[in-house]
Task: structure prediction
Amino acid sequence: MTSPTDLPPNVRRLVDEIESEMGETDVDVDDITGSRGYERAGEAVTANGRVEAAVREILTEIGEEPDRPGLAGTPERVHRMYTELTAGYHVDPERLINGAIFDIAYSEMVVVKDIPFYSLCEHHLLPFFGNASVAYIPRGRVIGLSKIPRIVEMYARRLQVQERLTQQIAEFLQERLAPQGVGVVLEATHLCAVMRGVRKPGTIMTTSSVLGLFRTRDRTRAEFFAHLERPAPGA
Result:
């Protein structure tokens, strides 16, 4: 068995992520940040104490004791969690694309479906999650396959409403590729409808955003939805 110290850095990082739950491995990085912080996946997250103090207030307000053993580390964990779940605010779109737009004489529909995503509802800070399906018709330019799930991830890791998330994905592709059209469909379960309020487990919300030919041509829109109904290979 290869010693961990003999692994290439990229493999070591992957092993670390598999071995440790994301956000739960904390390393004091005073010498890097100049203040208390946590290192996750090679990045320093500075803790200024404001989030921790706010979480302690919430715990006190609901009748809990923030200093009891099970909760003593909760404010710091919550800070790290929200830093991770809202990382999309800090993504540079140019670095995300990284030149992966190519001139190719292809003008038929490209569909990437069943992209899992997780986001936070901005109304209650509760998760909503599901799958995204994205399609576009190139106008001589295509984007690398792996970039489409990353675009979904960039906008999902923000405080969101599903309607806006759907539109942002579609508009990003429309702006960057100038295709003949874009179609995006999101299906998601919202814990704000399952855990509180109406409390209706199994409720699914579906949203769509269609631009260009997907909006103006019925046949194109019908082809897109027909693709979504087909089972994935091996399903």
